[in-house]
Every structure is written in structure tokens, then in C-alpha cells.
Amino acid sequence: MWRWLHPYAKPEVVYHLLGRWQPWLSITAALTLGLGIVWGLVFAPADYQQGDSYRIIFVHVPTAMFSMSLYIALAIAAFVGRVWQLKMADWGLAAIAPVGLTFTFISLVTGAIWGKPMWGTWWEWDARLTSQLILFFLYVGVLALYHAFSDQRNGAKAAGILAMVGVINIPIIRYSVEWWNTLHQGATLTVFERPPMATSMLIPLLVSILGFGLLAGALIVQRMRNEILRQELRRPWVKHVLNQDRATELSKTEQA
Amino acid sequence: MVFDNLQAFIAMGGYGFYVWLAFGISFAAIAVLVISGLTARRKLQREFVKEQRRQERLAQRKREVS
């Protein structure tokens, strides 16, 4: 009986579990990110070389970091979906890719805006910038393939293969600043060394990183729940959930 | 607070244009992401209600015919 029940019960359980996490994740994300950004903009001291322009770091570094780790998560989801035929892992592609795409976009744009006053150019075809641009197009490709097929499973399969192949780009981005001569500076934060950055700047940066991580989590949870509903739209439990939503909405409009 | 007044904060030591452009675009991109997630949910809801009404109409027509 469990074998029969298993595939039907699971998306519903996950939907409700994520529903319990979602408000907490959203609130902590908003608070942490707000704290990190305000701290970075208002209370962190100006840089002795770059002045106040360095404050872009509080958006640039967190989004760039998570643009890469989200891609790794995307590739893992694709791998699990292919190897164990887990449809929820496939749906995870649709939840993670838009968030990763937006973070990559932000890292590229803030990088360009930071580059203009510091390097004298918005864009340079050097290794770090180009490989990050390729990451952007990989996300676009994964999303486009996912939604390009009338049969959802084929779309997830094609998108998953691209996601797995594209993971080769991640070490290239990571080590591009060491392998090639580039305009871009080396990594500021590494796991084992004390970062060459004043504590008064480092702490708000770490808070920002935590905030962007929580934001990514909250957004992925939101999109995963939408995707579960979309994929299971004809199942009774989804009808029940949506009927309840409709009822609360109706009672709200009646009160107003 | 490292800025003396609001003007100094907005000016960002002469880099105001770049700093606020970067933060503005980032904020806008995240807002688009949040809103698109919310509207997707609402769209599902609307589709569901439409489908529900269609089913009701079909059922009613079936009753009328028989």
C-alpha cells in the first residue's frame, strides 16, 4: 500500500511543509537583508582607496556567490531527477533557476556599475566577467528548455542535461581570477584565511551574505510551492487547497 | 553613522550615481522576482476557478439534456 501511496502523498506533504517554512524564511530574510544593507550603506566606514563606491560590494559579492552555489544546487537537482527519476527534483529546476538567473543578473549589473568609476569601463571581455555572463546564459537556457516542451517531463529532462553539462563553468568562474590575468580582483573571502578586510566592513558583508542566502531560500520555497500546485493541478488535494484559498479571499472581500 | 548629513549620504562621496544605480537596479530585480511569484500563484487560482465553473456548466447541461 505504501508503494501505491508514496508518489501521490509526497508532493502534498512537501507543499505543506514548505508552507510552514515560508513565512519564517521570508521574515528572517527581510530583517537580515535589511540590517546588512543599512549597515553597509550607512554605518560601515568608507574605503581609503575606493571611497564610498565600494559600498556596492554589499550587493555584488553576496549575489555573485549565490549565483554560483545556486547553479550547483540546480545541477544536483537535475542529477537527482535524472538518476532516481524523482519528479520533485525536476520541479526544483523551475524553482531554483529564476532565482539564480536574477542573482547572476544583479552581480553582472552591479559589477559593471562598480567597474565604471574604478576601472574606467563598464565592461571588459576578461575571464571573470565573460564566464559569469556565460552563467547568465546557462540559466536562461535551462529555463527556456524547461518550459519549451508541451510534455513537461521532456522539458525537465532537456533542461536537466544542460544544467549538468553547464556545471563545468563553475570552477572556471571561481578560478578565472587566478588562471588568467584579469581586471577583476581575487577572492575577498576564503574559508581558511582571515580576510584582508577591516572588521567594520566584513561584519556587514557577512550579514548581507546571510540575508541574500535566506532571501534565495524564501524565493525558492515560494516558487517550489507554485510549481507543485501547477504540476498537480488536477489532483484532489490541490483542489482542496485552492478552494480554501478562494473561501478566505471571498470572506475578506465580504468584510471589506 | 559615517555621514554628516542626508546630502552627504545621497552624494556618497561623489559616487552617488553609481551606488544608487546599483542598489536601485538590484532592488527592482528582486521586486520583479517576488511579484512574479505572487502573480503566478494568483494566476493558478484564477485558472482553477475558471475550470471549476466550466465543470459546473457541463454538469448542469448534462442534467438538462437527460
From TrEMBL, chain A:
Keywords for this protein: Cell inner membrane, Cell membrane, Cytochrome c-type biogenesis, Membrane, Transmembrane, Transmembrane helix, Transport
Its membrane topology: Multi-pass membrane protein
InterPro entries named in the record: Cyt_c_assembly, Cyt_c_biogenesis_CcmC, Cyt_c_biogenesis_CcsA/CcmC
Residues spanning the membrane: 21-44, 56-80, 92-115, 127-146, 158-177, 197-221
Main subcellular location of this protein, as a coarse class: membrane
Pfam family, one: Cytochrom_C_asm
GO BP: cytochrome complex assembly
Keyword match Ribonucleoprotein: no
GO molecular function, one term: heme binding
Domain called Cytochrome c assembly protein: residue spans: 26-184
Gene Ontology CC: plasma membrane
Subcellular location: Cell inner membrane; Membrane
Signal peptide: none
Biological function: Required for the export of heme to the periplasm for the biogenesis of c-type cytochromes.
Family membership: Belongs to the CcmC/CycZ/HelC family.
PANTHER family: CYTOCHROME B_B6 PROTEIN-RELATED, HEME EXPORTER PROTEIN C
Entry-linked NCBIfam families: ccmC
Protein name in the entry: Heme exporter protein C
Source organism per UniProt: Pseudidiomarina terrestris
Gene giving rise to this polypeptide: ccmC
UniProtKB/TrEMBL annotation, chain B:
Primary localization class, coarse: membrane
Record key words, sorted: Cell inner membrane, Cell membrane, Cytochrome c-type biogenesis, Membrane, Transmembrane, Transmembrane helix, Transport
Transmembrane segments: 17-40
GO biological process: cytochrome c biosynthetic process; cytochrome complex assembly; heme transport
Bilayer topology term: Single-pass membrane protein
Localization of this protein: Cell inner membrane
Coiled coil: none
UniProt cross-references to Pfam families, sorted A to Z: CcmD
A cellular component annotation (GO) from this entry: plasma membrane
InterPro entries: Haem_export_protD_CcmD, Heme_exporter_D
Keyword Glycosyltransferase: no
Family stated for the protein in its record: Belongs to the CcmD/CycX/HelD family.
Function text: Required for the export of heme to the periplasm for the biogenesis of c-type cytochromes.
Name recorded for this polypeptide: Heme exporter protein D
Source organism per UniProt: Pseudidiomarina terrestris
Lineage: Bacteria, Pseudomonadati, Pseudomonadota, Gammaproteobacteria, Alteromonadales
Annotated gene: ccmD
